[in-house]
Amino acid sequence: MSETEQAAGGSAEGQAPVSKTAAAIDRARAQGRAALVGYLPAGFPSVQESIDAAIELARNGADIIEIGIPYSDPVMDGSVIQAATTEALANGFRVASVFDVVKAVTDATDAAVLVMTYWNPVMRMGVDEFSRRLARAGGAGLITPDLIPDEASEWFEASDRYGLDRVFLVAPSTTPERMAMTVGATRGFTYAVSLMGVTGA
Fold first, then answer.
1. Which residue in 95, 97, 13 sits closest to 47, CA to CA?
2. Domains plus CATH for the chain?
């Protein structure tokens, strides 16, 4: 899965919070370049090493960093990410540790840090609690590959309450009508998947 990211500074629901992610994209654009977005799984191979890697990613030019939460039953991740997240889980990674990663990276860098996660870990912790802790850690928001706007009312409320970006996905199979609805529900950027299937190497 590769992506093209389009800045989206607001939502269709009235006055939107300021988007850290859109601001990072705008800063890059003002410098005459595209924003560089990097992805790393949290906790691989350890929590501290994932923090160190993300900080180095930012120091070497990443404007936005996606921190993935390792998940036991990935449905969209390719073999490389699956292997990394399996190792992270085997080494004791827990969902709550993602807030430590986000806080360490946001404290040390100017990058906008998004958490990329399947929706189940967020629901398990509680949408409001997860959102509150992410905001407190300095996170920019969430990328939610398996959550669609139609089923995201609780996330809309929490993301507005805590000023978090909500990044939804569109795919080559997305109809123009659904694309317009998804873009309107997004804040930060819209994650446009260019190929059908799982993430590549």
1. 97
2. 18-164 (3.20.20.70)
